[in-house]
Design brief:
The chain is an all-alpha fold. It is built from 9 helices and 2 strands.
Length: 238
């Protein structure tokens, strides 16, 4: 698999921010009352994630290690401001629906995490596609959760009637508890599928995530653990 394909696959499947890493839970649970809201939030975050990864990677040799987090936040906040102004101008209804969660993208742990663990350590092209992959994975997860919640709570998906008029909506799925129910159910379904495949003897390592701490044989070039180890080593040498 090429480096670009690996980065896209990693974000969509192997290290999906929502279903595997369980990052960015605040917007995941808050804005997914409808599929369109989940899609809008996901694409907004994906755009910020991809562009901030690219710029941070381009400036990685210029940004001092001691001030890298403030520098990351300034870069991310700049892109969030641009995205918010564009939404206010061209998609005001979506901007109103997402509300305060657009400015909060600045401190989204997915974006800061990828900036710290990958973009700051890797070249621009792979960092760009890492951001795109993680962003698409986040978008897919939010859209899926929003579609399920909207279907159960209103009988529609993307405001299109799917269930018959005789269907009685379960309104709680449009409220805060419904977000927890749906997220837990979809995550459990994913883990159930993985376990079944493993029991049948299939190789599910390509779907698994997590650090084995076997740094010598690890192919992950954007490992934050090795970054901190190397940083600690350089301080000890000084």
């Amino acid at each position: 698999m090429s480096k670009v394909g690996e980065r896209l696959y990693n974000g969509l499947i192997k290290e999906n921010p929502t279903f595997v890493l369980t990052l960015g839970m605040c917007p995941t649970l808050a804005v997914t009352t409808k599929a369109v809201n989940g899609l809008g939030m996901g694409l907004t975050t994906a755009a910020v994630l991809a562009m901030s990864n690219l710029i941070i990677s381009l400036l990685r040799k210029v940004i001092p290690g001691r001030v890298r987090i403030p520098a990351f936040i300034v870069i991310i906040a700049s892109f969030v401001t641009v995205i918010q102004l564009l939404l206010q101008a061209y998609l005001p209804s979506l901007n109103d629906a997402l509300g305060v969660y657009i400015p909060l993208i600045v401190v989204n742990c997915i974006i800061l995490g990828r900036a710290e663990s990958y973009a700051y350590l890797n070249p621009p092209v792979s960092s760009l596609f890492d951001g795109i992959g993680m962003g698409l994975g986040f978008t897919a997860a939010l859209t899926c959760i929003g579609a399920v919640r909207e279907l159960i709570s209103a009988g529609t998906v993307f405001d299109i009637n799917v269930l018959p008029e005789s269907y009685v909506p379960i309104r709680i799925f449009g409220l805060a508890p419904g977000a927890f129910f749906v997220l837990a159910a979809l995550t459990a379904l994913q883990n159930y599928a993985k376990n079944k495949a493993k029991q049948r003897g299939r190789n599910v390592s390509v779907f698994m995530s997590g650090c084995s701490e076997d740094c010598m044989n690890c192919s992950e070039t954007g490992c934050s653990k090795s970054f901190y180890d190397s940083e600690a080593g350089s301080r000890n040498q000084q």
